[in-house]
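Cross-check.
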Amino acid sequence: MHAVTPPSAAPPQPAARLPLPRKPAALAVPLVYAAAILAAGAVPPARQLLWLTLAAAGACAAATAINRVVDADVDRVERRSAGGSTASPRPVDSGRALLVALSGTLLLLVAAGQLNALALWLSPIPVLAFVVVPHTRRWTWAYRAFLGLAQATGPAGGWVAIRAAVEGPTWLLGLAAGLWVSGLDLLHAPPDDAGDREQGTPWLPRHPGPRGAVAVARWAHAAAVLAWVMAGWATGRAGWYFGGVALSALLLAWQHARLTLSLPHVSRPRRAWSPGGSVSLVILAATVLDVHFYG
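Predicted model, tokenized:
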């Protein structure tokens, strides 16, 4: 008889590499540029755009790395961390993530310092938000409101980078971005409900349920559109800008209609393209066109 050779042990799985910045970390970046253009009343000089880009890149890298470490336990049961399928069991490389977080934070600080003194002084605020926000999902149903506050720092920072001042449009642009991202995250949340229950997390949509979460997202997006309109009035924008806001409202309405029709089947994988997720690009394009034609 031939001896049975035991199967060789499977090679250990390498630590998961940090992916490219996940939504919403990079989702609102176009709104940072839109805010900078609104602040300048034109496309800013190349030097300012370069440092603004580096600051946004550093912030995205830091946010993604911090989120991966803090939410490693939650991501194991959340479908979104693996594109709609069961999350990968491979562990997060905490050392690498910490290095990325520190490097991103340093890049943000250096770039902000090259823009102006106020931008440098305020730059620790988004980093603090990146650390605090992932923890809020463990103790409050309003986690996505905190997520929106973190995302609001991007466009607000874009305004401060150009004007070196916190003014009315700073708050309006930040509020619009925060409400938009929070609403989108709520719309994408129902398929994760089973994982949320397994983890015992208290946030929406567990309370008041998927339909209630969609209703909250609807109001958040309506308020975001209103904030963009008010920001346009405050900065003296014209037809192209408001046309972009109107198109954004239609895209969000389309997103809500699609989800409302599929609510009985919210556990199915989500489509790759999200109409509501394109809003930031629409706002940026409309802003560029508006300043080009109207100054």
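The first helix runs from residue 29 to 40. Confidence is low (pLDDT under 50) at residues 4-22, 79-90, 264-272. Passed to J.P. for a second look.
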